[in-house]
Amino acid sequence: MDNLSRMTLNRRLMLKGAGAGLGLALCPSQILAANTARIALIMGGTISDGGWNQLAFEGLGDLKAEGFDTAYVENVTQARIQEVAQGYADDGYDLLIGHSYAFGSAFLEIAPDYPDQNFFVTTFAPDEQMLPNLQFVDFAYEGAAYAAGALAALISDNRKAVGFVGGGDNPTQQAMNRAFVAGAETAVPGIKGLGVVTGDYNNAAKGKEAALTMIGNGADVIWHAADVTGLGAIQGAASAGAKVLGCYANQTSLAPDRMATSFVTNLRWMVREVSHSVADKAFKGGTEWRPTIKEVWVPSYGETEPLQDFNPALVSEEAKAAFAAVVEEVSTGQIDINQFK
After folding, report:
1. What is the pTM of this model?
2. What is the residue range of 17's domain?
């Protein structure tokens, strides 16, 4: 099976049985498991952001349907993370999921006080010593960003510049920015990779402004990784006639004629997998989970089934083949993604 076929199969598995959302079909062993674990999802953004937080929330909904005891809170500011997390821990939740980079330091402080409970943060592991009841995940963000930069350059019409709009000003977003720029400038020599990390995940106006600024500097393809801020980037870029790439969820509906594809990440699956590991007494605390780019990032385009990988009007067969080659190089380690961290 060639690379594009594998990616198509992976996308279908991710979307199977999930309606408009994302996620792998639940296997019988999961459905029949004794789902007595209590799971709390703590988010820094809103569950209606169309991507990062919404997908994790949908995973929590899957767990609730299976019989898990679930709870969630959205729009938690960094100043309140410790207070909110301690509240759920004091209430006896078996697993607390902190859904962003900002939760890492707070959970490192809290976890030792609750040795019989489990904590999970959806970002890479810090340099500090790992704790036995705390797990992190490297969701191949830099690999996805490098591939997105390459695709943006490959589908650029003017071959002058392409742009990235980031959210919170944190190491992950900065690394994604660097990877996007490198991917673009390597894929098409002479093209300029541009990037703006806005410092905000929840400000559509900032996203639109960043996108339009880069378009004014020659960019004709825009990708984001910025939640609500990214929605503004898509709408602004599309209105200016640029091509756009979605992120986290399939965002075709935001700009169907200008959307080349969305880089869909299986956050819904992630929430289910880590929660089942707790229910099965198999939680891997003290580790960093490292799924590959092909396991967790899949291109998806379209509003009705059957979905496609790419918008055929904007992505040529030549560009698809070149993009698939880049993904393969990232997946096999031929391109050292760690250099961007």
Report:
1. 0.81
2. 3-140+266-296
